[in-house]
Design a protein that fits this description.
The chain is α/β, with parallel strands linked by helices. The chain is built from 25 helices and 27 strands. Strand 2, helix 2 and strand 3 form a beta-alpha-beta unit. The chain is globular.
Amino acid sequence: MSQSPQSPQKPRSFIRRGFAFFWRSVDATRRTVLNLIFLAIVLILLYAIFGGGAKPLQPKTTLVLDLKGQLVEQSSVNATEALLANARGGEVHKMIQLRDVLAVLDTAAKDPNVASAVLLTDDLQGAGQASLREVAAAIDRFKATGKPVIAWGASYDQRQYLLAAHASEVYLHPMGMVMIEGFGRYRNYYRDALDKLGVTVNLLRVGTYKSFGEPYIANGPSQAASEADSYLNNALWASYTDNVEKARKLPQGQIMKTINDLPTQVAAVNGDLAKLSLAEKLVDGLKTKDEIRQMMIKRGAADADAKSFRQVAFDEYLARVPHKLTGDAVGVIVAQGEISDGSAGPGSIGGDSTSKLIRMAREDNNIKAVVLRIDSPGGSAFASELIRRELELTRAAGKPVVVSMGNVAASGGYWISMSSDEVIAEPTTITGSIGVFAILPTADKVIDKLGIHTAGQPTTWLGDAGNPLRPLDPRFGQVIQGSINHIYAEFTTKAAQARKTTPEKINEVAQGRVWTGAQAKDRGLVDRLGSYGDALKSAAARAKLPADYRVVYVERDISKFDRFVEMIGGGTAQAVAQAVSAQLKLGAAATTGLPPSAATGIAQDLGWLTEITAQHKPFTAITHCLCESP
């Protein structure tokens, strides 16, 4: 009997079964390892939250308020960016949120184990006047509980000194200085430079004082611009000096007198600026950092292990600040930065993205009132109107809206405040600037120099009217000016409705002019002067919330990775743009022998003009004040 040959399918089947078994084993091992890792992370987090947590503070602990970075309303640096920058050996632009500083100071003021505070400002890199006054007021509240605040600095600029002046004692390094310079800076004007390049900037605007575009069409400020700048800066300066002199118990006018007599006074102390600061009673003593450490050890409690005084760092104490997780809340939406169309990330304002946050607050049943915290010089008129409309809908839905103006709430920043139950500004807020403009740069003279010519047969005069390589068609300019006029009328009409007055009266204080918060209050542009805390209290009262209401920050969802890291601590128009940037980029400016800081400033000014030119729209209606808090 013959034997049938073995089927060739059997070896293949055996191989498949073997491979399948191997793969199941690898997959099971992978899942087991990943599950163990996940379980370990969960156990670590649970231990941190419930088991271990922060150790209780011991009595006589000193809060070390070391302010590092720029003081902002909302940080624009997320965990992913920070990790990548560190991995590349780069420097992370540090930011410190105003709300965190206020929370730490107010919580520590009530903490029986915190006996004092040390304020260090050397690394404070920038802040607006309104934000500084908020922190200064929190320092005063801390001191009012009987707890001293000791300030020390290697040197103080005028922003840093505004905070230090509110300390119980102010100390300075023996080789340091207190540099109070005053407010207001010279601005660059580019008319002659642009003429030499062949670039023509066509500025269309409404508002006598709307001076944003003047640097590109003139060689100096207009009389109206000079008048407005002087009025604003003098008011801010008077507020600053009054604040510091009262905090330091100095005679009224002493700071100005010291500045006016500075050359003589410096000569009298042989150039020793630290000694001069002490003589003028701007500081209480001259000490090195180690001397401050020894002083705090004697006054408080020694930490033998750290060989210093018993202390808790700002970041560590911030993690201890309690947060209420349930109950009715006031929702806070931060509107910080320039206002642009579309979406923008944290620390900036997008017409679509910020509107979405307002809708989220409106649709959240736990949020009973909204506070819009503004720190913005404005931007797109269209995006501003989108945001204002969402606030209008929020009020119509029965939720109160209170606007809290920070450092700047001008032009578009004022536009978005016009649908609210109450507008509260700091005395040094920069606001107003109710005006509109458009800028249309053309490079027809540039291409003439290059021997380039343009020609075509469009079906209508409008078909190529926005071509930046041709002179501006007067008819096109007329169309744009008409649109700008209309938007200005919309601006003043909405402002009049919001302020319960007439467009004519708004026009009298509009015209693109900027005001301090105090000046705006006198002119009916804001309801009252007050702090961010006052805005929260007003919103809560309007919503009839209990005294223990929550505060919820309505912000864009961060990625799961960022959240995890934080949990564990971790066109044709382009032709003009290219023509301008190629001639006036930073490198070109640097070759003239200009100091780097001056070259950088010029590059920034002309870079903004390049960005405007590169817009995909034929023109953009802009509500921007070109202003910042000194």
